[in-house]
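Hi support team,

I submitted a single chain yesterday and got back a structure, but I'm not sure I'm reading the token output correctly. Could someone confirm the output below corresponds to the sequence I sent? I've pasted both exactly as they appear in my results page.

Thanks,
R.
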Amino acid sequence: MLVEKNIDLHNSHVSWLRLEQEIAVELEDSFYWLLKKLDIHRFSFEHDPDNNSTKTLFVWLPLNEWLVRDQDILVKSLISLAKPFDLTLPACKWIEIKNEDWSLSWKKNWKPDPVGKSILILPAWLGVPEEFLERKIINLDPGSAFGTGSHPTTRLCIEALDKNPPLGQTIADLGCGSGILSLVALKLGAQSTFSVDTDSLAISATKINSDLNNFPQNLLNVSLGSIEELEMNMPKKKFDLILCNILAPVIKSLGPSFEKIIGHKGKLILSGLLVEQIKELQELFSSLGWKALEIKTKDQWALIVLTLDLP
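Hi R., thanks for writing in. Yes, this is the structure output for that exact sequence:
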């Protein structure tokens, strides 16, 4: 899963260091956060759809800017983020390279990725394999932004939509990333989606992937912002379903606001939380008037489906 590709490595005057680090999939969000915080933009997460437990993190760094001491600090930071998950990172590799078109080199590792009973995530440059012709195809440019269907939290959301298709429903996709959940909802019969994200890269990615799947703008509406943006641009009828695949601390901060945009008997799908955070989230949303309808887990991650507990 390529999370950034807007940086060009084609500079004949620069040599690069490439860090290669195998990681457990549950570390992806934490490592993404760390690299962005360190202002490191040239990185990718690559995965094999046949291996749902690990990914490989690649980081490209200008050789003349990264001393051995700086390299050690970066590796120690990665190791420290793995500790809360009780995970140990295998030894990483540092490779010196001259020039590499990193925005294209990762493509060789991408394959069609079936999710649930009816969805196929298909890299945009590939044709549909014959064995998947009956599935609903989501064409995706994995290089546009994070959110390709490979992370357990995203798969939990797709499987939930696949199990209970949102036929004719109006969907809010909060923290849309690449727009994958909006695309899946529309493919499964949603009437329209309203997608927001606070990252401008995610907004661009959602628009790109919407075009790849030939969805007109009136079906997949996308804008920069958070729940306030959804409330401001909400259709006359409130949302039938809210999708929120964001880390637990952000979900908690948004909790009191979901009621403002959910329609009668509407549902809220929360993902992005760890299994050990289920109880805390349940208690919070119970205090806000929500009732849990279903809980699903995958690896160390969880999904909760809720509805307002109205008389």
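A quick pointer for reading it: The radius of gyration is 20 Å. Let us know if anything else looks off.

Best,
Support desk
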